[in-house]
Amino acid sequence: MARKRVLVTGATGYIAQQLLPAFRERYDLRLTDVRKETRDGVAVPDVEILDLLDDDPTAISPFLEGIDTIVHLGFVSRDEDAPYESQRRNVDMMQRVYQAATESGVGRVVAASTNQAAKWYEQPWFAGRKDIVSVEDYPRPESFYGWAKAAYESLGFVYACGGLGTTLEVVLLRIVVPREIDPDLFVNEPRERYIRELAGYISERDLQQLFIKSIDARSIDDQHGIPFQIFNGVSNNARKFWSITNARQVVDYQPVDDSEVRFAKDIARLLG
Q: What's 111's DSSP letter?
């Protein structure tokens, strides 16, 4: 079987560094970013310079020849002096990716979203008034960052549903805690803050699996036949409240890690 050709935007970023080792083994990659090094100054091989917010919205087009899937990880950091405006730029960047994919005949876009698109639901969960947060729950962000990701998602449905005259396959992954949890950060914090991290943890190998299965799944159609999905990105954590039911059903996501096991000694010390 021919290897899929995948374009990765934001290829020097934090999430990309977790994904690229697995991607390089599986796909023919084209990597783009606005720089060729990570924020720590480590060079990332094969990265080509591309500014998705260039004055020319077609600047991405030459990078899409023969591409099967775009994995969009590109992101403009929050500007403390202009929090809304900086996040609006991220929505504009996402729209350019959707539009370029549609015009270039790319079949699927898999983009990094975040649980922040629905983060307000953590409040009723902590209060014991909600047991699980589903991707079907109405988005309830509580920051401009979360709003921008929710906008990514609804914008993706516009491109997926055929309302624009074409159909683009779109998967949004609401990544929650994509890092190892440092217990020392929570020693003097309320218990629920540490519990929230444990609930949302996703290991590197589970993150890789979720992205790969979102790229490789033959069909991502929803119950109405629309090729559009939102998946919560968490491991198989005993304390998870972000539902992964649809990811299991649609793309056979089978996370192997559990924060309760991974951080058992820390949990005993902080919560015992």
A: E
